[in-house]
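dumping this here so i dont lose it
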């Protein structure tokens, strides 16, 4: 399945991204990306292992989450790791919640009645005030930098920053100021109406692939192998959610099978498998990361 987010395209480049990176124009470039670092130790351990094995080529960090210090330590010990920021404006788990990085009194629209971030994207989209979102997004970036993380890119947890034009405008504005590439994808996966917000230097992906709850457990391996076989020339990102199906992650994701503990174990098992590696080789896929895309911004 192709993950549809309200992202957009930019003015055509005279060269393809592949050519700008030094590859033939018709190359199939792929970012294999792990979301949600800092949510839990299990999430971090699985993601670090996948990064170390080059089973994923990038990952992104949820700065408000409790295990940020562990990610910062990994970043310090692995300065070449491709780590972006998964800008976080929701807190979706039933009994495991977090709040903003910014002082709560400065971002009250980000808070649900319990004082945590909103649980669902639609709740957040209805309630967030843009000026408070910008305050929080900047606080997350500055806090990440303060603990020693040098982000390679930005994206948006649960797509909140893609849910309203004024929120997307903040996302683009802040990314430009910090000179960071950011997740955005061409139509038809994304509408065209926000075209004017993007610079002709912005790096726009051609496609995003992510498993969703419609994928049966028995079809998990074939979902990813089919995605590899069906990749088109251009730049694609496969987004995975990695973790170990252990008591910690089971407790974090209780009563939430979608993107839960078993789901994350399945994703980890697939991307670290010899079969997945062979599929990449057999289909002549060129693996890249956001660090590569950051180099061609200027």
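and the seq i came up w/
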């Amino acid at each position: 399945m192709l993950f549809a987010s309200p992202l957009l395209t930019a003015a055509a480049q005279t060269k393809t991204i592949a050519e700008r990176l030094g590859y033939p124009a018709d190359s199939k470039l792929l970012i294999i990306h792990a979301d949600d670092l800092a949510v839990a130790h299990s999430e971090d351990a699985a993601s670090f292992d996948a990064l170390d094995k080059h089973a994923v080529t990038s990952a992104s960090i949820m700065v408000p989450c409790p295990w940020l210090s562990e990610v910062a330590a990994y970043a310090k010990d692995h300065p070449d790791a491709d780590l972006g920021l998964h800008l976080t404006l929701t807190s979706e788990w039933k009994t495991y919640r977090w709040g903003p990085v910014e002082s709560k009194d400065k971002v009250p629209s980000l808070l649900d009645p319990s004082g945590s971030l909103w649980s669902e994207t639609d709740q957040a989209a209805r309630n967030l005030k843009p000026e408070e979102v910008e305050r929080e997004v900047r606080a997350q970036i500055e806090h990440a930098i303060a603990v020693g993380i040098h982000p390679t890119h930005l994206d948006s947890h649960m797509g909140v920053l893609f849910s309203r034009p004024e929120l997307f405008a903040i996302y683009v504005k802040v990314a430009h100021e910090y000179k960071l590439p950011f997740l955005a994808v061409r139509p038809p996966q994304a509408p065209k109406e926000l075209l004017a917000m993007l610079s002709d230097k912005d790096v726009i992906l051609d496609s995003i692939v992510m498993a969703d709850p419609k994928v049966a457990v028995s079809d998990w391996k074939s979902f990813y192998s089919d995605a590899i076989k069906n990749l088109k020339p251009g730049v694609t990102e496969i987004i995975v959610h990695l973790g170990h199906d252990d008591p910690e992650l089971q407790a974090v994701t209780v009563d939430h099978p979608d993107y839960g503990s078993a789901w994350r174990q399945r994703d980890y098992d697939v991307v670290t498998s010899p079969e997945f590696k062979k599929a990449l080789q057999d289909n002549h896929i060129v693996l890249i990361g956001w660090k590569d895309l950051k180099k061609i911004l200027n």
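Residues 58 and 196 are 28 Å apart (CA to CA).
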